[in-house]
Records
---
Amino acid sequence: MTTTDAKSRSASAVIEAEPNEAGLDEGIAQLKNEQKERLGGLDRETLLDLHHQMLLIRRFEEKSAEAYSLGKIGGFCHLYIGQEAVAVGAISAIRRDDYVLTSYREHAHAIAKGISSDAVMAELFGKAGGCSRGKGGSMHMFDREVNFLGGHAIVGGQIPLATGVAFATKYKGTDQVTLSFFGEAAVNQGAFHESLNMAQLWKLPCIYVCENNQYGMGTSLERAMSLHDISRKADAYELAGEFVDGMDVLAVRAATERAVKRAREQYLPTLIEVRTYRFMGHSMSDPGNYRTRAEIEKHQLRDPLKLFSASLLETGTVTESELKEMDQKVHEEVERALQFADQSPEPAIEELYTDVYANPLGIDGPRNR
């Protein structure tokens, strides 16, 4: 049942070996050519929106790193720099009323699903203006308005929850789909296998997106998993599986569109392995001693934001001045988000009693919902 985009795999495989300079240049050129081929299938507005989303997430995460270093953000903080094409590409392929559940590395997914940068930054600051009213922080963002259901700190914990959401939408007879994002380390959890088995057995419209950034905290994929080709794990449960190059936003979008069509029309699940790479540490407290600077720089040559910008420029879709103007506006938006978070009040003491119970007994008291 596994389908593999041979072009995507060959382009990404170049970086995983120890290529010479000529081979590396050839792989990057191949990726750019493939991306340009996909550009023709989308209108200019969509292409610019994809670029804007990735740029906003990149600048937002850079500013989050600054704020964390200044002590404005407490707890853990997991940045998404380098992986922007995954969340943006996949979420751009679904509707506003579709559901998204993800792991603790979630700032990008929250923004891509429609939560404002103000609300996300305020949540990072633990302020009342945050999307979880300051009680979720970096790892537990929710917003029912856009069907963004977290933000889960337990490795793989969101996978069975997403499966349950997909069951609920099928039970209600809607054509909504559910995207479940997780890292490759979660694939070793039993909940992953139980969920895929159940999704295929019960025909659930759930799309499982494995963001394979090749490291589970500080442990490489090769040291933790006997089968490195995660997309092939779909074969064990006879559901559709696909490998895609996670440094190409259009490849991710196209693969997700295929999975969405399958889910809406046939109530069938899909496993998508998206091969990507995080340029920062596992979290802000990670010194990153398990990999070399040379390895990181090698992957940065395939920076999804820079590659997409180059494709847009080379095809005449956008001009250099337009890109600079977009970057300036994004910088201004992120600065406004920072100011909003700074000025937002601390949660009221009464918030200790809210969101604990659904008030099933009808007991009067502070807002319980």
---
Amino acid sequence: MNNPEIFEKTYNQYWKKLNAFSYTMTQDKDLAQNIVQDVFVDLWERKEELNINAIEPFLFRAVKNQVFKHYQNNRFDQTILEEKFEDYVIDNFSTIDPEIMDLLYSLLDKLPEKRKEVLLMYKFQDMTIDQIADELGISKQTVKNQISSAVKQLREGLKDLAWLAPFIIFNHKF
């Protein structure tokens, strides 16, 4: 990373992804940009001493650590950040890397059959609640309840998969 051209290429290649991830965690545009900028400044300042084998996980981990550090210094409850991560995975389920999807499918398989069917129709087939209710011959309220219950169950399961955050975020196509 001693070469300014390589650094600039890395910056240009990852800025958008890192900023999007940082924003997902902070919900603050300026703070997200500042965190990513700090990560790149630190990377440049420590270029002589760092030996980085895989730049993507390194950058992601650095951004995540900076976000946690910021909120830790400001006495922020980290459970909010964990919930944002879980929401991100659930909301972007259909665009996540196929290898990670295999692990997420194992969570889906644990859902009751009807609940899984409703969630898949809603998230993967982009069907509306009305369309799902009509197709399955159930009430709209039942569809809403099934989606809510499925999301709750997935959220619980995702707590065990939090270590996957770097892979999920960095493999997401922004």
---
Amino acid sequence: MKRAFRCVLAATFTIAALSLASVFLSAHADAQSYNRWTLGIVDASFIWSPPPGVAESIPHCAYDLAKQSGYTSANARPGEESPLQYCLLQKMHEHGATKNAIAFTKWYYDTPHGDSAYITALAKPQYGPVQLASIFYPGNANNNAAYLFVNGTNPQVTDPNVVFAPAAEPWKRNADYQAILSAHPNAFVYPALSFVGLARRDGGGQRFTLAAPILDGCHACARLGVVDITYDFGSLGAPKGLSLIAVRQR
């Protein structure tokens, strides 16, 4: 099955060539040049709220279908729909998903390195047009929940997980993070963002703050701290850059 778009969005960028701001700006422009957003403004009609137990049934459906068909990601044909995507769309049709919700799931799957996911919630806009959409990956063994910035301009949809691309990872140059590494050599920043806050950006626009945990070697290991990252958008919703604002030890 396809790897999650959020984990590999900017993996080909070189560290020397790009600043943090240009990583944020260029990654999305490059990725969406292959599958531009044409679905209009994201609103409540893009949200799917499956009944209890339905989301949990999707991976089981996909496993059974893959077993029956012999599907593997290694032998998949270009453009072939994965069993997970087939089962997700089937469940969406069966359990009241709107045309817009289904259209998003199809669009997201077709983005470079996209995956099977759907929108579960949409935060109200403040200080500008960009909104934070919560998305859910039913096929992930860990970390099923994530975010997308939607209703921006150039591009309209951006992925905050670009901060985990090799060209970014700003915490690696932070003294507080290096101190944690000295005490815990296996520490790493786990790619699971949580919402911290939204404020008006100096000069106009929006500043979103998200956080990611620092873990001691694995996703189930001890939590050592957290990194806070800001994402800036102009007054019309254009991305302006991202930056590390704090590394906090637990």
